[in-house]
Every structure is written in C-alpha cells, then in structure tokens.
Write a structure and sequence with these properties.
two-stranded antiparallel sheet; 2 domains; 67% helix; 4 helices; 2 strands; elongated; mainly alpha
C-alpha cells in the first residue's frame, strides 16, 4: 500500500470513530424518555425529539456500514504484517487513530520511544513499496 492509501484509510478510521461518537450522542439523547410513543389522533407515532435522534442515528449507521467496507482492505493489510510489534503499531495508528506520542505504552513491553515507533512504521511502508 502507498502512503496516500494508508493516509486515506486512516481518514476513514477517524470518520468511523466520529460517526460512532455521534450515534452514541444521538442515542444518549433518547435515554430516560418515558413517553417515546404518543397517541395523538388515534395513531401511535414516535415523539418528535426522540424520532429525530433515532432517524439521525439510523442515517449515521448506514454511513458506518459503507465505511467499514472500505476499511476492510486496511484490516487485511495489517493482518498480513508478519511482525507482531509492527502489526500493533499499524493497528494503533491507522485503526485506533492514536497519535505517535500515545502509542508507545501500548506496544510490546511499553519501552519503545515515540521516534522508534515512527521509524519502524515508515521503514515498513517504504520497504513494501
């Protein structure tokens, strides 16, 4: 994969993360609402604020499905990396969207520096081009 493809797939991961946060926010707005359904005019319909948030969360969920399909290639690329440490670095940076400073404690025994992790990532990408 090229740098551009990896950058684009990281962007997709960030978008997935943001959409997930929005869906969580929308659904949290519907919690604790006792009167979800009202019987105005003899029919039952969802109350306006709750219906609005449910509709928004459904729209966002549809977007998530499409983005997960695009990210499948990234998951396959990372799972094909033979070295465990390098695979962890790629997953944390590209899927979990961590910045370089937050990755070291989560890789291996936690003793690698930010610079060592950054170099390992770019060396792997350059050698695979």
């Amino acid at each position: 994969m090229t740098f551009q493809e990896l950058r684009e797939l990281r962007g997709i991961s960030m978008e997935i993360k943001r959409i997930g946060e929005r869906v969580y926010y929308y659904l949290s707005k519907t919690e604790g609402v006792n009167n979800i359904f009202s019987t105005v005019g003899g029919g039952s319909k969802m109350s306006d604020p709750v219906g609005h948030y449910v509709a928004l969360s459904l729209m966002e969920s549809d977007k998530l499905g499409a983005l997960y399909e695009k990210r499948k290639a990234l998951d396959e690329y990372i799972s094909a990396i033979p070295d465990s440490i390098t695979r962890q670095i790629f997953a944390l940076y590209l899927i979990d969207c961590m910045d370089w400073a937050r990755i070291p404690p989560h890789v291996g025994d936690g003793t690698m520096s930010k610079e060592a992790i950054w170099k390992r990532y770019y060396r792997y990408v350059i050698n695979c081009l």
